[in-house]
Each structure stands twice: as structure tokens, then as C-alpha cells.
């Protein structure tokens, strides 16, 4: 039973920018019954410190190259008894703003130094040099912010095994070559076999190159990232490491996302009382200022407003789509041009379009509960969580066939409808025409209420909890240990 250190840069409900925070909250909790001894490590961001309860300083580190001592604060991952360590370096993490950027969304200029410090603190903990009297057998790192950890640990004689999970290859932690020299990293890491990526410094490459085992968040995305279309130039390296790469679909946390138990929605419901969903629809319409018309399909969309999510595809077809009796509720934030375009449409057509720009956890639940359909026309989607939540809420997902969307939604073709396996609508081409065509298919079925109900109920019956995917992670930890050799705790 390996001891696990889960290293991550965001975790619900302490600090969140996207699905990574959801996974960092739900995966450790799902793993805990199988592992017993696991701990989570996170930077001590101002917001995280404010939200975490009963933090105690338990150790102080002095890292060469950093003037100030670094404290380790100990608390618990909320709603669990999993120990949480916060790496407290106020100069880097005690700031107003997000984890990766300021209040305007601009990256912090010292991100390379911030996540180098975080990685070095993790290495000290992993090698039992942090004064915590604890050493993991496996360190599970996530995304570029922890990419240096496997690279730095690789050269440690008494190191634990390392697992690196790619949640989104589009975010790589790329910095100018000159930054490398400011970080006091071992010089031998600056090679094409190390952290150098076409003349730049890549944190992500450190994880991909040096981790004993790699995972990503869906089987389809694991295949996609080995191709030039999705690999961002790392496809060759990922192909080279493919024998050590596993795609494991993220699980939905049904303690948070379950319409029968959701305290953030007006009216709880389940598959046997799906008609009650209409109450949530009316409440949502009222709160968003949309007419409470029945028989009009309400389409929901939640997420980062960036090209990845296909928001531009939606904007292109909106003039045509809004010629039909539909309503649209969008919640998100991201690129200013998309925010402005959406706001403009909502101003011009308030009878049909409601837009909330910003982050709003409760509204996200109310959209899932109140919308009839949920739109995710992503160009790529490593896993995606909202389609899993939508399935659970009987809010029929309309998705592009990519990554985790392809692995979780079954298209409502006539034969799939007939054999009862359909759960949503899936399209292939990342084009406005393909999206519009698929929305038309969905709207046509929506106007056949009995068929629609069956499709929604079928979705609600799917089980995308962590379940067997936890076993897949446990197997990867064992493989990493086997690759690494004797675990430190047995030495
Ligand atoms: P990604 O990690 O690429 O942003 P995911 O679908 O994997 O996308 O996860 C997104 C998570 O963040 C979901 O839990 C979603 O509900 C939430 N989310 C995204 N944007 C917002 C927002 N503006 N308000 C509330 N929740 C949001």
C-alpha cells in the first residue's frame, strides 16, 4: 500500500480555475480508502489560506537561492481527514488575484520562480528532508506547475517513484531560455533531453521526460496527444513514452454533483422525478431575466471562454440559431473578445440570451439543473467534467467528438436511440456548420418529449464516478514503483 504525496497547484474549494481543482479534490478522496496514507501539497495562496481551516505551521525549509525561509502549514483537505500541506512563501503566493495571474487575468511575471520554489519544496518533502518525518513512496504530480518535480527528483538517490498527469497539454509552462539561469536549477537539466524545448524552458517537458509513469485524463486524449494536431510539438516525446502513458477518465464527484442531493438548486430531482426539473428551469429563467416560456429549449454552457472550448463556433451560428425558439444561458470568463461578443448579444436579444461573465459556483449548479441541453463544442477536451455533470442532471450534452467527450457521450443516432445506448449528441468537424446541424438534430428530438425523456434518463443512469478509474490509478502507482525499484519506506 504505497504512501502517496499528491502535488497540485489548485484544489476545490480552496482555489480553482478549472477541472484540475475538481480532480484534486475528488481523486485523493476516492483514493484514500485504498491508500490510507496520502497527503496533498499546494502553494499557500492567500485565498487558499483564508479558506482552509485550522492551519498549523509544522516545518520550516531553507532553500538555497531563496532568501526567506519557507514554512509548511498543515491542515486538512476540506470534507476529509486527508492532511494538506501548504507551501508558505508569502513573497510568491500571498497575493490578491488568481493562482497563475492577477485580477485582470495576466500571468504573474514570476511564475517560473514561483513554481520552481513550489517544486523544490515538494522535492524536500519527497526526500524526507523537510522536517516532517514522512516520506512518500510515490509523488503524483499534475500539470506544468509541478513539472519540475520529476526532473529534480530523477537525480536524487533515495527518491520516491513519480507519476505525472497531463490535464491539458495546451498549458506548458514555457519561458524564455534566459529564465533558466535565474532559477538556480541544475545546469545539466538544460538539454534537449531535459527541460529545453526548441530553445525555451518547458516545465511540462520536465514532467513528461522524467516521470516514471505518465497519465492523462481520458483514453482518447492519450492517443490524441501523440499526434501533431494535439501534441504541441511534444507528440514525438509522448509517442516515445507511450508504453508508460495511460489514459484514465476523470470521475465526477457525485457528492457535489447529484441532482437529488444538490443543496444549491431550487428543486432536487432524480430520474424517477425528472418532471421536477422544470421547476429548476423556471427558476433559472426568472433569475436570468429570460421569459418563463415552456416548450422552448434552454441551452446551457459553462466554462472558460477560449477558443479551445469552441465558443467562436457558437458565436458564428448564433444569428441563425436565435431564429428558432431557443434560449441560451452562458456562464464563463476568458478572452475579452468572447466576453464582449456574448455580452453584446445578450443586450440585443435579452428574451433569448443570458450571459454571466465571471465565476459563479452556485449558478453553475443551477444551469446544470435548469437547462435542457448542455453545449461543449470543444476543439479539444482532455476530459471535460461538465458533460459528466450534465449527464447526471438529465441535461442532454451536445459535444464534439474529442478527448474525454468522445469517451463519455454516446451520439443519438437512430440505431443508438432504438437500442437505448444514446446519451447525447456528438459531432465530428470543428465547424459552425457541424455544430448547427447537431443542434438542429437535438432540437428536433427535444420536440418529441417522450423520446427526449428517455435520452435524458439514460444519461442520468450512467455512472462516471471514480469507481474503477481509482483502480487504474492504483495500478499506475504500482507500475511506477516497479519502474523505480525499492520504495523508500521499505529501505
Ligand atoms: P477546464 O478544466 O478545461 O476549464 P473542465 O470541464 O474540465 O474544464 O472543468 C471545468 C470546471 O470548472 C467545472 O467544474 C465547471 O463547472 C467549472 N467552471 C468553469 N467555469 C466556471 C464559471 N465561470 N463559474 C463556475 N464554474 C465554472
Rg for CA atoms: 23 Å
Heterogens: adenosine-5'-diphosphate
Structural class: alpha/beta
Helical fraction equals 25-40%
Calculate the terminal CA-CA distance, rounded to whole Å: 15 Å
Taken as a percent bin, the fraction of beta residues is 15-25%
- Poorly predicted runs are none
Please tally the β strands and state the result: 18
- Main β sheet profile: 9 strands, mixed
Largest sheet strand order: 3-4-5-2-1-6-7-11-12
| Basic shape | globular
Average the pLDDT over all residues and give the rounded result. 96
- Helical run tally: 20
Task: Give an account of the 3D structure.
There is one protein chain. By secondary structure, the protein is an alpha/beta fold. The protein has helices at 19-35, 46-51, 90-93, 111-126, 148-153, 177-180, 203-210, 219-224, 228-231, 235-240, 277-288, 311-321, 336-348, 361-370, 386-392, 403-408, 414-419, 432-446, 449-460, 467-484, and strands spanning 4-7, 38-43, 56-61, 70-76, 83-88, 138-142, 161-166, 174-175, 196-197, 200-202, 213-216, 245-247, 297-305, 326-334, 353-357, 373-376, 396-400, 425-427. The protein has a 9-stranded mixed β-sheet with strand order 3-4-5-2-1-6-7-11-12, with helices on both faces. Strands 15-14-13-16-17-18 form a 6-stranded parallel β-sheet, with helices on both faces. Strands 8-10-9 form a 3-stranded antiparallel β-sheet. The longest helix is centred in the C-terminal third of the chain and has 18 residues, at 467-484. It binds adenosine-5'-diphosphate. Residues 18-20, 22, 302-304, 331-333, 359-361, 364, 383-386 line the site of adenosine-5'-diphosphate.
